[in-house]
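Annotators were shown the component list below and the corresponding predicted structure, then asked to write short factual statements about the assembly.
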Amino acid sequence: MTTTPTRSPQGAEGLRRSRRSGVGSGLFAGLSVGSGALILVVLAAVAAFLLIQAWPALTSAPATLHESIAWFPDKTSLVSFVGPLVFGTLLAAAIALVIATPIAVGIALFISHYAPRRFAAGLGYLIDLLAAIPSVVYGLWGVRVLVGQNGIGQPIQQVLHDVLGFIPLFAGTPARPARSLFIAGMVLAVMILPIITAVAREVFLQTPRLHEEASLALGATRWEMIRMAVLPFGRSGVVSAAMLGLGRALGETMAVLMILSPGFTYSWHILEAGKQQTIAANIAAQFPEANPLGVNTLIATGLALFVITLAVNMLARWIVSRRAEFSGAN
Amino acid sequence: MAQRIDVKDLNIYYGSFLAVADVTMNIPARSVTAFIGPSGCGKSTFLRTLNRMHEVIPGARVEGSVSVEGVSLYSSDVDPVAVRRQIGMVFQRPNPFPTMSIAENVLAGVRLNNRRMSRSDAADLVEESLTGANLWNEVKDRLDKPGSSLSGGQQQRLCIARAIAVRPQILLMDEPCSALDPISTLAIEDLIQDLKDEYTIVIVTHNMQQAARVSEQTAFFNIEGTGKPGRLIEMDDTRVMFSSPSRKETEDYISGRFG
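Structure shown to annotators:
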């Protein structure tokens, strides 16, 4: 057999689709379309599961819920039961995000633009390792180091209360031991730090060299260069990174369950104990003891969490797209 | 305003690799000086040492002296950031900041020096710089649109406007027309002619006709082979360089017998 390239003898006949390449690209197209469709199917399946399972609770009268579920509070409808949980979940996630995002952006900038290259790689690796720590270990750490006797959570809370007590958020008696939403939020912040850092770092590293040099050539210092070129370029990426972190914070269960002393109010006092609870931690806490209707009720709260997460993501996309014209993608 | 540049015995390294060796030249003020030569001969690298932009690349360093009006750029008490504010640079590919509007792009450099600027001063400066860059009439109705919405040639003129808005003394241009079509190239060349009354302009170009059209002095760089450093072969008045160069390499390159 010779290995000379085959030439179509008919000239223009060679332009026709060959059967072999058609099979390959057809298979690949099928696979990728299939994977894309699978995502939608899974999402729809989860939504359907939540709706069907929550249906008995959604359609029951408040009195029925109260009668058959031991832990269901008196004189409350399902909505007024879910309300404080949604509030607590959002507040905890917001605290985590407010603490974690600036730190994560700082670390990411340090790794991408300040640290010596060899050191940066090691540091990035260490940050990624934080993501590998199981959440129950974070919970233990929070309980022992922040909450427990002589924990550092109490002095931190006391200082915040003394200095910023005039802000309603930090009013109210700081909890002792520090089983407050603020401490739970701190632990959540450490947990979401790696994902935000990793995504932000990748985005910052992709800042076009051209834009960095443009600002340096105008006489920008390194920090000014970061402000002119890197941060604007990375803006939408940082929002996406924060949303990934927020997604994790909203659904995080174990650490909150172990740290927070739960309560079911719409209280802004994040330093107090027994005021708030998150949806995920509440499900984990009540599920073992729940009867069938109780499970339906918990799944209804899970449905609320699902909706919140979708809404938050859509909001973030909308924020990013508002200035898409200036994003540098064109 | 415009200043002259004197370079003496300059060696440029990337790490331990000698990229450009032993350059000595004097660039007069208020004139256009062109650097020509084959790819990889170090003319862009050399240009970047004139405002200390080459230091941005890790491991890059120089030996020798570059002085502007007698002040050495590489003495230890000179701040590279201050050098770059005095010596503007325009790059090969237009690089307006995509997240800023046209007006913000023009003001980007000025805002670094002088944050508090009244609205009317800023508007005046935008108009003056864009007029100086021959772009005002094309963009005056859409100053708040992103810089990246302009055509390539317009973007490059926007970059020139951004560079001259800080009123530098020297303007370095690194193949400013290589990504542009002939009409935009012509617009930039006209602009260079206008700007040379006020600025010392140094331009790197691959296009020998362009060097002949716009410059008063021409410097020819060459490289002997891969791994060897680039060198300045000769520098003279552009007319002399293109009619009767004194070195054979120059003549070969200019007449297309290179290689």
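Statements collected:
1. The radius of gyration of chain A is 26 Å.
2. Residues 19-59 of chain A form the longest helix (41 residues).
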